[in-house]
Design brief:
Blueprint lengths: L17 H4 L6 E5 L2 E4 L4 E4 L2 H4 L8 H14 L11 H13 L6 E5 L2 H18 L7 E5 L8 H6 L3 H4 L9 E4 L4 H10 L4 E6 L15 H12 L2 E5 L13 H4 L6 E4 L11 E5 L1 H9 L15 H16 L2 H20 L4 E6 L4 E5 L9 H11 L2 E2 L2 E2 L3 E4 L7 H23 L6
Parallel strand pairs: 3-13, 5-6, 5-7, 7-8, 8-9
Antiparallel strand pairs: 1-2, 2-3, 4-10, 9-10, 11-12, 12-15, 14-15
The structure holds pyridoxal-5'-phosphate (PLP).
Pyridoxal-5'-phosphate (PLP) binds next to helix 2 and helix 5.
Length: 429
């Protein structure tokens, strides 16, 4: 960089192309409910609840107070070996009571990626200590997102997220997302060598893709038949997004493990969990597995756990899951309006989630999806383009029906402005 180049920022934004972003930052200042304000005083409706997590909405003083109280008392401590803290013990009890797993144990991490990596290590270690070390392979779905840490990157089903990083974890098999027959073939082919199947109840970052009817029932049946562990990644769907505490319940699943994060604190503190059933616990809690050589500096962080407890209390006392259930048909009805636009190829919904897939012809104009996102932002709605082609809608649970209508009205205008922009672009070479 020459000396004359103005340096606008030193902040290397995650998931960004700094060539485009460095001179064009949106700097948030504060938030309340479903609204965010930037430093210039512009207001935005947060259509995505930040990164799928701000379920109780922005600006919750109760959560700030829970953090402050805990920080003054005991901000952080080691939780390795015999050490523990009260918020972690209480939150583990609370999550175990809510989870669709009998007699669950809860392992804490700092977020979804660490939860996925922890779950992979747990299932591989499980089979090793059970005397079947040849069971190491993991089956995942195309389009899946399982975080950005080492194992999660290896498990990714979105090509761009796992390509270009050199050699990753061997023994990962990808299957088409909704094809139970393909899964059965993989289970047959690798019989006795599979450790686990990992999947999101509804594919999130891959474009908001609900499963086809009966898919999860068949996955669960195959896992039982071939004795493959079932790990359900509920980082997006956990803690209410599908109108149940866990998406697994919606699909009648009894997983061996659940990974979750985001909604456990609504993002007010970084926290993730792996919820483990009795089978996984057995060798570690009752058998001779010995020391599980895994854990993070911030595993069971007392401040994060105190925020988690306070957040779950809000979800319960304000009956936010019931609220999600009542908003699901409203969102579905409103986004259906978008399906009628020529710029939209398909609208998909599941719980309080929607993916607005853009027209493939318009997507041939480079930058079309980003343009629509920008047009929405300029009109006061924050969304983003999942896998470069589907607009994400995953609002805070506290969003009102009127705000949902405003959100969709604004997306209509943004889609029209984006289409008009695309019409003016030179044809692709
Ligand atoms: N798993 C799923 C299904 C996710 O959607 C995400 C993040 O969006 C992750 C894992 C990773 O979580 P984090 O970004 O908190 O590390």
């Amino acid at each position: 960089m020459s000396d004359s180049t103005p340096r606008r920022t030193r902040f290397w934004h995650p998931f960004s192309n700094m060539v485009e972003v460095a001179a064009d930052e949106v700097v948030f200042d504060h938030g309340e409910g479903a609204w965010l304000w930037d430093e210039a005083g512009r207001r935005y409706l947060d259509a995505t609840a930040a990164l799928w997590y701000c379920n109780v909405g922005h600006g919750r003083r109760e959560l700030a107070e829970a953090a402050a109280t805990q920080m003054v008392r005991l901000a952080a401590c080691s939780n390795f070996g015999q050490l523990a803290n009260r918020p972690a013990l209480d939150l583990a009890d609370r999550i175990a009571a809510l989870a669709p797993i009998e007699d669950a144990a809860v392992f804490f991490t700092s977020g979804g990626s660490e939860s996925v990596d922890t779950a992979v290590k747990m299932v591989r270690r499980y089979w090793t200590v059970c005397g079947q070390p040849e069971r190491q392979m993991i089956v995942v779905r195309e389009g899946a997102y399982h975080g950005m840490a080492g194992y999660g990157t290896s498990l990714a089903g979105i090509e761009g997220n796992y390509q270009g990083f050199g050699e990753l974890l061997p023994g990962v098999v990808r299957v088409p997302a909704d094809d139970a027959a393909a899964l059965a073939r993989v289970f047959h082919e690798h019989r006795g060598r599979l450790a686990a199947f990992f999947g999101e109840p509804v594919i999130g970052a891959g474009g908001v893709r609900p499963p086809v009817e009966g898919y999860w029932t068949e996955v669960a049946r195959l896992c039982r038949e071939f004795d493959v562990l079932l790990a359900v990644d509920e980082v997006v769907t956990g803690f209410g997004r599908l109108g149940e505490w866990f998406g697994s319940r919606r699909f009648g699943l009894k997983p061996d493990l659940i990974t979750a994060a985001k909604g456990v604190t609504s993002g007010y503190a970084p926290l993730g969990v792996v919820i483990c059933g009795p089978r996984i616990q057995e060798p570690f809690w009752h058998g001779n597995a010995g020391l599980f050589r895994h854990g993070y500096t911030y595993s069971a962080h007392p401040t994060a756990c105190a925020v988690g407890l306070a957040n779950l209390k809000i979800v319960e006392s304000e009956r936010l899951i019931e609220r999600v259930r009542s908003l699901i048909p409203v969102l579905a009805r409103e986004v259906e309006r978008l399906a009628r636009r020529s710029s939209v190829a398909q609208v998909r919904t599941a719980g309080l989630l929607a993916g607005i897939e853009l027209d493939p012809v318009l997507l041939q104009t480079p930058g079309f999806a980003d343009r629509v996102v920008k047009e929405a932002r300029e009109r006061g709605v924050l969304t983003r383009a999942l896998v470069g082609k589907a607009l994400q809608i995953s609002p805070p649970f506290v969003i009102s029906e009127e705000q949902i209508r405003l959100l969709v009205d604004t997306l209509e205008a943004a889609l029209d402005a984006g289409s008009a922009w695309a019409a003016q672009q030179p044809p692709a070479a």
